[in-house]
Amino acid sequence: MNGFDRRSVLQGIGGLGSLALLGKHAVEEVDAEETATAVPEEARSVEAGLELFATKWAAGGPIITATRFGRFLTNQTYNVHVVQPETDDDTDGQADPARSYTLTLGTAGATATPGVTPTAHAELTMDEADWEAVLYGDYTGLAPILAGDTYPNKDDANTLVGLVLVMYVLAHVPHPDEDPRFTAETLEGLFQRGGVPECEGEPASFATVNRVQNDPAGEVRERAFGTNDAPDLTREFAEWVAALSYDRLGEEQVQLAKEQLKNMLGCMVAGGATEPGRTFCDSTVGFSEGPATVVGFDSASPHEAAMANSYLCQVLEWEDWTNLAHSGAAIIPAALAAAEAASEAGKPVSGKELITAIVAGNEVLARTSQFMTDLTNTGQALPLHQVQTPLVAGKLLGLDAGQLQDAVGTAATQPQLTSIPAWTAEAKGMVTADPTGAGVRAALFARDGLSGRRDLLENPLGYCYRVSDVRSPRDMWPAVDDLATDGTPVDQWGFRREQYFNKRYPCDGFTMTAIQAMLNVRGQLVEEGVDPTDPSNIESVRVHMNLPMASTATMFNEADDAVLDRVLDEDQPDWTYISLLFGGRYPLAAALLHGELTDRQYERDAIADDRIRDLWFKFDEAPDLGVGVLGAQVSVTTSGGGPFRSAVGVDDTAAGDDATYESFVQCITRDVNGRGRDDIQTYTPDVKFHETARRLPEGKRDTILSHVDTLEGRPVTALTALL
Question: At what angle do helices 46-65 and 128-135 cross, to 10 degrees?
């Protein structure tokens, strides 16, 4: 889509209304003129859907090949099996051999043929209904996998998740015969992020890893023949962290560390007011006594306090992230607990030392996330916390470089990966709590003389290779190339403002632009005299999702409202409000009804509100390849009222003659937190702290913020004493 703006792209396919349904109609049974109508259930078939997907792949294959995740998909052969609807004669869960197909994805073409091949790279079996839903764009293939309705082999997980995600996305792209130019350019826009102006700091799809600059021949040679040239990652991180001092930090890094500290302290207060937060922390402080503060609760041992505070950051999904990975929920609890442990041992930690350790942890996280991201381990699931937390804690405990290596080697001895289905239950907070506790504990062990393997990160059977699909040791080099062991500042910080994302709303981070767009639309409705609290005023809600949101928004609820029933069912305690944090419909419906999205909207009474269910079936979500990396567009059509159209982040669209209210929000930093101003951050950490920590008296909130602002002149214990 180079050379196209968003509006011209949408006009090129007949308007915004048809974009959400494109791809659903391209089968023989449907009249070609019905371009804005979904394929009726009775007209769908797995075979027609596979054929359509193969046709679209022919246009998108060459582009997908060059992406960060292209290696998981291109030049792969899959045996796909269809499980028939159950009858009295069926064997439950068994695929029909007559409905098995070999799907081959080449760099520039694809085929789907009857039968199977013994040389397939992966096998995938799904129910007929799930195949059709994915191929025709109802929901992502993650939904049946996370529901336990299909069981991909562990070794095949990345390629199969990529396959069903691309199938879902391509279902919403027009058939190449209708508009081949748009199809190819849309895919290029998806994977090159060239369709709309990029948002500063958002991740790119292409992985450009160049250890040796201006040496394309050398890179091609190493890509072709491999390399054994790996950096001493564990040692170099340890030596850099040990040598780093406050006076070598950039002004921006210092300010960001303070902002992150405010954000996480507020999240801890909010998390402690939730039922799971209280349960977890009451239990934790009963394990042992210790010098470390559990925010809002009694003290505990350092590693258990770090674990509890990390859990509180996670339980409302309100924490921040750095670059590609969630950061503050692990780094801040580890830093506070280690600082208190060191002070108890007679080595008081200053505010400057705390800030330095926080910056060090964020920098290590930002750099490792560049090469440890794959399809199933990304975002919240990125397994980095056993790398940065022992370094953060160890630095504050006064460990030297060798001891820091021991701490990392100990923490990473038992690699932790998250189990995404667990995110429906209260235990979801363990996604950072467990590795954070392990990191602080490992630093304490190293302080007392326990050794750990000192090359464990980069070892081919070590941590990085255990928890992620690292394609080559060459990919590790950019993480440490400019880290000097004499404390010299790095040339280019990975932890910088454009790479730091502060969540304004408690929800999956990929959904934040959609939430803002919904709140913008709600404001338009109120201005025009339409009551958004009455679902009878709403005819339909169409959500144009970015690709990451599309991959997660239906992963727990598929195409019905079963998730609401599960969350409200007291006999299913493993389905909680936490599953709704990752959905698309619930937070958007709640924002429309209440005009806000905070922890209040995840209380049981709010979830049980009948108006939520009234709105539920009025939603139509679709991946929209024109909204950018993390953008979203929301369109609400009312049951009556006058015409109104508006957009945020782009020029106003032309007024129409229907009752549709729209908002397009492109960037998180600019259009959600900055609200359209590049030079002013209107949603500041102070504003967020007063919202998340509102249960504290206002005077106490102001005192805490003042302590963080002047942290350089105070011991850390002066701050923790307030918590």
Answer: 50
